Amino acid sequence: MKPQTIGRVLGVGVRVAGRVAGQHLAGPARGADVAAAGSGTVVRDAGRAAGQASRGVAKGVGGFLRPFGRVGGIVWLEVTGVFFLLPVIVFAPTVWQTRMSWAQGPDHRKFVSAAIVVVVFLYLGITSFVRARRRAASR
Q: Of 86, 80, 64, 73, which Cα lies nearest the Cα of 129?
């Protein structure tokens, strides 16, 4: 067969399959209903059939993705916990180096600000991991 003939046959086959699938979604024997009923009824029925089909697809996809959403939430909490712990790693040496200036001294402000950053981000990192563990254990 020539390439032009193969393409023509495939194109016709795809069009026929699309027409058959559309009639199948619309319901049985819609060809006779078009002549008998008004076009509004046919459009309404086709809309209902499409709505039911899309609801079925949405339920199926939702059921398939539900476990991935749960695992994704746990992984998200763990990843954010790691990112919250990065400032702790960066600012902890500053807290250690300026620890002698905690009450008063030349590096008092640097110590206090670094200590606040370390405490806040340590809290956020730890609680993120705790929430991930609770979520993993509850299900």
A: 80
